[in-house]
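cache lookup: miss for this entity combination. No prior model stored, computing from scratch. Input as submitted by user K.M.:
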Amino acid sequence: MKMNGSQILMETLMEQGVDTIFGYPGGAVLNIYDALYDYKDRIRHILTAHEQGAAHAADGYARSTGKVGVVLATSGPGATNLVTGIATAFMDSIPMVAITGNVSSHLLGKDSFQEIFITGITMPITKHNFVVRDVHDLAPTIRRAFQIAISDRPGPVLVDIPKDITAEFCDYEKMPPVKRREATAIDFSQLEEVAKMLNESQRPIMLFGGGVVSSNAFGSVRELMRKSNIPSCRTLMGTGVLPYGDPLNMGIIGMHGSVSSSKAVQRADLLFAVGVRFSDRVATNTSNFARNAKIVHVDIDPAEHNKNVTLDLSIVGDVREVVEHLLPLIETQERRDWLDEIDAFHRDVEYRPQGCQGCELKPHLIIQDVYDVLGNDIIMTTDVGQHQIWAAQYTQAQDPRKFLTSGGLGTMGFGYGASVGAAAAFPGTKVVHITGDGSFHMNLNELSTSVSNELPIITVLFNNRVLGMVYQWQSSFYRNRYSFTQPERKTDYVALAKAFGANGVRCDSHEELREALKEAGERLGPTVIECTLAAGERVLPMIPSGLTIDEVIIE
Amino acid sequence: MVMKKYTLSIVVENNPGVLARVASLFGRRGYNIDSLTVSETNDPGTSHITLTVTGDEQILEQIIKQVYKLEEVIKVVHLSDSNTLSRELLLIKMDNGAGARTQLREIVDIYEAKIVDLAPGSMIIELTGAPQKIDAFLGMMKEFRIIEMCRTGVTAMEKDSSKS
């Protein structure tokens, strides 16, 4: 059937199973938006306030569903506004397809109005990108973009479409959705070796990251943990992989990880690391990391092996397949001595935040209130900074895809857009956006998006009136020289929320907060809950950059 | 770890921008490219990139894996010195005044180079050979006044004769 490029784009998106996209119109995508007008009953388009918000929304949609997130923007500034969102997805291996319009083919390369070389700009932050130069290539290119986004290690792909291509006609034939390319075949002899190492190890530790989430391996991973009784920790991106409250779950490792997990990794004779990349926030000092242990690393991306830490054994493959094949080879174990040692770490050296005597708000108790009032099934999103780490440390997420955070790029302003994406994907689920006053100011314009679309996003704003994480570093390492981390803003968050058409509440006590959360959970539209915090609240424990658990700060 | 010079042979899809992707990757990861050549192959759909880079074994392993992740890269091979034929072309313009001409001609003969242009004050010499030979020849040229020079960078191919 003959169709124009814009209709072909719609049809191809639908054939790939897309029913929701996020975007912002403009000159170069007028034809595409004209087609969307006809497809709006089949493709839900969520209009954001800014293209960056749309990119984070597509990312949040992908993180919460496991499907490919799709964002659409116009040429020039529309395209450049996506850059931070694409880079955020790239660093955390999130499958995304970004579609940008561009000026017509005959105007390309002439510095035309709103022309930008977006494929050049996004080259290092996409898995791959394309310029569609012929309408006949359009559908195959979109399909290939989806396949690249979901195959191997997932990530964002950008497709740039000049305006004339969106108007030209050609034949379109429907195709089935693309499948993931086959992962590297597992080397079974290696699995036997790993099983032997795990079975013989006296003090094994497991470490899980985002790769476990993207391959949906958390069920098998938990089974492995319980069968062999192996104490396990996670990275920021592995939040939700380990069952909340399980005695084998040692929490986060790294710069702001639990003291026990770092102590345990230092004591371990074997570290079995799955779907992680040993970033500088995890292995704060690579030469001392797991220094008494043999390190076995499973990852789908061979380039992650031996990149940051030197390994004893590396296995390339899909995490889920590897763990599933490994399970039958693993012996049931008790590990009494080792677990006693772990318990001792937990009892004797673990950091515990001070409670509150019904007085001022405390970060860890705010997170606890959120789960107490709204339940453990919520999707929590965060921005970046102190509030993010508190949320990650005290989250009660029971499963993956329930805690969305920008781990690799550390993008302040990520949270609201991500919440829009998650709320669009799961209309029945409560989405709680944890943010700070610094991060919230970056993209608070997206409040208007949740108002227009009646997305009941609950923002819990940690307001300490400083740019907290940097302020904390200035306290600890720069002799209290608070250079530009006290913005002296006079923002009235309650009035601001109301001005956008949302509800706003200010809380000074946990009692007020619980009441506000309860009310917000019953509303149809969004709420902003401002929680006032002391500027001196610090994220602890903290291992300073480049050092080890021996130098941890806990007070 | 020991820093060494490595030669990589990369076969890529012949698309616009593919060289930029490879070069951008090297720039981003901080790998130093010593030389880079791109050429057509017998298959119009592919191009061949020969790249020499300085690093240690760990960097080499990373480079190969990272390059291989690029969508348009079909094959990456590390060419070891023993089984590789490497060639480079040099063009060098020399000041041939004050009796240098005779001496230069003598060196040109020894190296089996060619004088491809001769003018009253200068001559252009062309030399093809392994990079080491070019280096040695340039060492000799430094005794005279070099007006201008350029090297093409290495192009290389695996030898079958040394395999068995």
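stored under new cache key. Chain A is about 35% helix and 15% strand.
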